[in-house]
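User: quick one, sequence for these C-alpha cells?
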C-alpha cells in the first residue's frame, strides 16, 4: 500500500492482518456476496489468533452501524444534490439498495476496523518468513 509502514490503513483497506499487514483477514473476499464474511482463525503470515476472545467480533456491529449511517447520509446527500425533485421514497429505495449491495463490504470492513482498535502493527512480525 501507499501509506507509511505501521499505518492502520495498510491493514484496513486491503483487509490484511492488523499485526503484520500481510496475511489475509477474511476467509472469502467481501465481493463474493453469497459467502458470509467470516474471519480466519489465525494469520497465515505471522500466526496471530484473530479471535482474541469468544464473541470478539460482536463489537464490530457498532462500527458497522457507523459505516451504515455514513453510507445512508452520503447517499441521501448525493441523491438530494443530483435529483431535480426530491422524493423521500426514491431516496429511501436508493439507500436500501446500496445498503443491501454493500452489506458484505460494510460487515468485512467493520470487522477489520474493530480488530485494529485492539491489535497494533508489529514490524518484527511483518518480517518473519
Ligand atoms: Zn499477521
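Assistant:
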Amino acid at each position: 500500500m501507499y501509506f507509511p509502514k505501521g499505518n492502520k490503513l495498510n491493514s484496513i483497506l486491503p483487509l490484511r492482518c492488523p499485526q503484520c499487514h500481510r496475511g489475509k483477514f477474511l476467509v472469502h473476499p467481501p465481493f463474493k456476496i453469497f459467502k458470509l464474511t467470516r474471519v480466519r482463525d489465525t494469520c497465515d503470515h505471522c500466526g496471530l489468533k484473530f479471535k482474541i476472545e469468544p464473541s470478539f467480533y460482536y463489537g464490530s456491529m457498532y462500527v458497522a452501524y457507523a459505516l451504515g449511517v455514513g453510507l445512508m447520509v452520503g447517499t441521501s446527500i448525493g441523491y438530494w444534490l443530483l435529483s431535480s425533485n426530491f422524493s423521500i421514497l426514491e431516496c429511501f429505495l436508493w439507500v436500501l439498495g446500496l445498503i443491501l449491495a454493500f452489506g458484505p463490504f460494510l460487515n468485512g470492513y467493520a470487522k477489520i476496523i474493530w480488530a485494529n482498535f485492539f491489535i497494533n502493527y508489529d514490524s518484527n512480525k511483518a518480517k518473519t518468513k
